[in-house]
Write a structure and sequence with these properties.
CATH architecture of the largest domain: Orthogonal Bundle
Distance between the termini: 50 Å
Strand order of the largest sheet: 3-5-4
Shape: globular
Number of domains: 3
Number of strands: 5
CATH class of the largest domain: Mainly Alpha
Helix content: 55-70%
Order of helices and strands: HHHHHHEEHHHHHHEEEHHHHHHHHHHH
Number of helices: 23
Largest sheet: 3 strands, mixed
Strand content: under 5%
Length: 558
């Protein structure tokens, strides 16, 4: 069945609440573990249907944020889900407090219980109104950013479409596009400040009602941080400063010298080679090449790509009103992933396709585990290893997409993956500071961002670019508004994915086999346990940084 043909039915909060009460009562009254395990299967099937309907609503809203029907559905879920989430946490506690837990953990991964406990600490009846307001503010941000129109070269572009110029080989075009986007962002900058001000306030109030010192503690629990804490992140941040920042600066100086630039400007930040590698062919041709690539990679990847294509489970055309990022979500009732992207003709089109397909592969494998709870509870950094590693694992097929510019693409991709790390670290550092020192005003936050850029991106120059000089570049990062503290997961995953890149240089088949092992373990164990089991190194260790940077230095010939 095609995704567009899937029937959507609104999740009735009263009906679900009654069903949850029934589950809770039956779970508590169960006389043995077998009864609870049978009920667990029933609960799993019920939630698959509910999750599928909610996913369909979100897919159709993000495909067109101007759609009146699905905008109202989004508003409905923003309002009802907090109360329903409280009830769902009650059900979670039945698992955690079960008299038969010792027997349950033989069938359900222990990390499932760990993460449910963490999640249960982030919500109760006292914070329902704050959760509703938080949801509404996030939706307001999404709609505002999706509505931005950028005038450039006598045309109107969305933010996704204008990004095609960030890698243009013509420096004047890059500068013009950057200034045009900056002008459009300046028009909404104060509104974005207001939304974020209220989000920080709401989240801080929520955290204090739950008994926490700051929202940082809530954010970590929401994301299931079950094997590392803020001290580990601080250690990671220092390793980025020690190993990654100097290497990025060397790389940027080398590129500036080769390009003949006196100063590296913000609009030069995504350019790594004189020739801009662009994918060859139309979207249809790109997907035909994608099919060939994934068929040759492995039977599992080939089957999934074909299944998703037949179901029209890809939407990659950028257009007005469409949510501006990329994501993969699941439709568990149909055992089908769905990918949204915004192609713009740049080499990032291939990067986002391979990235999101890594997520899709992990979802697809999980959907084929019959018992929902047996899939465990996968955390974000583990998910991002799936996607970022897939980007590297497709290198041997990049000639299909880039022809004679394949090596330029690979250089661009490795270089951009490296230089992402300081930026991603800043995003997390910014959030940590904002929520731990929630009295900061908009001006203070912008000052902190500017200082962090000077510290982690010393090669970058914003001179003559008004919007970005105000320290507001953080406003463009949706995660800061929508999913606080998520962004460092990309950084941890990138350091892990780089290890797969190292392994590929020696033995591609062995690296791919290890990757599949990592994917299959996802959700069944904590992140660092999975890392250890497949024979990789922790991204928190200095040794990992030393080895990774040496590999990249050799690949980029720095």
């Amino acid at each position: 069945m095609k995704v567009s043909q899937m029937e959507y039915k609104r999740v009735d909060v009263r009906e679900v609440s009654q069903k949850l009460d029934d589950f809770i009562l039956r779970f508590k009254n169960a006389e043995n573990a077998d009864e609870q395990l049978a009920l667990d299967e029933e609960i799993g099937k019920y939630f698959e249907i509910m999750d599928t309907n909610m996913a369909l609503a979100n897919i159709r809203f993000t495909l067109n944020t101007k759609d009146e029907f699905y905008s109202k559905e989004k508003e409905y879920y923003d309002q009802v889900m907090p109360s329903l989430s409280v009830k769902m946490r009650e059900l979670d506690m039945c698992y955690i407090q079960s008299k038969f837990k010792d027997e349950l953990v033989k069938h359900i991964p222990e990390v499932f219980f760990t993460n449910k406990k963490l999640e249960s600490e982030t919500i109760n009846d006292s914070v329902v109104e704050e959760l509703k307001r938080e949801n509404a503010l996030v939706t307001e941000y999404t709609k505002l950013m999706s509505s931005i129109q950028i005038k450039f070269k006598n045309k109107i572009y969305t933010r996704s479409e204008i990004s095609q110029f960030v890698t243009n080989s013509n420096r004047k075009i890059r500068r013009g596009a950057c200034l045009a986007e900056g002008r459009a962002m300046r028009k909404v900058a104060k509104k974005l400040d207001i939304i974020f001000n209220e989000l920080v306030g709401v989240r801080t109030t929520l955290a204090k009602k739950l008994g926490f010192k700051s929202f940082s503690e809530v954010g970590y629990r929401r994301l299931g941080r079950n094997c590392y804490d803020q001290n580990d992140i601080a250690k990671f941040r220092q390793n980025v400063k020690t190993y990654i920042v100097p290497l990025c600066t060397e790389l940027k100086q080398k590129i500036s010298s080769e390009m003949g630039w006196k100063n590296l400007m913000l609009y030069d930040n995504s350019v790594f080679t004189k020739t801009e590698p662009k994918p060859i062919g139309s979207i249809e041709e790109i997907f035909a090449k994608g099919k060939k690539m994934y068929q040759e990679m492995d039977s599992q990847t080939g089957e999934l790509f074909e299944t998703m294509t037949q179901a029209e489970a890809f939407d990659v055309v950028a257009r007005d009103g469409k949510w501006g990022g990329g994501y993969c979500t699941g439709l568990p009732q149909y055992k089908l992933p769905f990918i949204l992207a915004n192609f713009n003709g740049s080499h990032d089109d291939i990067g986002v396709l391979t990235h999101e397909f890594g997520h899709a592969l992990a979802s697809y494998q999980a959907f084929n585990i019959p018992r929902v709870s047996a899939r465990g509870s996968v955390t974000c950094e583990t998910c991002e290893v799936h996607s970022m590693s897939m980007e590297f694992l497709t290198y041997q097929w990049m000639n299909l997409f880039f022809g004679e510019n394949t090596q330029e693409y690979i250089f661009n991709h490795v270089a951009s993956s490296l230089t992402f790390l300081p930026y991603g670290t800043i995003v997390d550092f910014f959030q940590q500071t904002v929520y731990d020192y929630y009295s900061l005003n908009a001006s203070d936050r912008n000052d902190f961002w500017r200082q962090a850029e000077r510290e982690y991106l010393p090669h970058l120059n914003n001179k003559g670019i008004p919007y970005y000089r105000t320290g507001r570049r953080w406003q463009q990062k949706a995660h800061i508004y929508e999913t606080p503290f998520y962004y460092i997961d990309y950084c941890l995953a990138q350091m892990t994915a780089f290890q797969f890149l190292q392994l590929m240089q020696e033995d591609y088949k062995g690296a791919f086999k290890k990757y599949l092992q990592f994917v299959k373990l996802g959700g069944t164990k904590p992140f660092l346990d999975i890392i250890k089991e497949v024979g990789l190194k922790s991204p928190f260790e200095e040794e990992t940084f030393a080895e990774v940077t040496e590999t990249i230095r050799q690949m980029l010939k720095i």
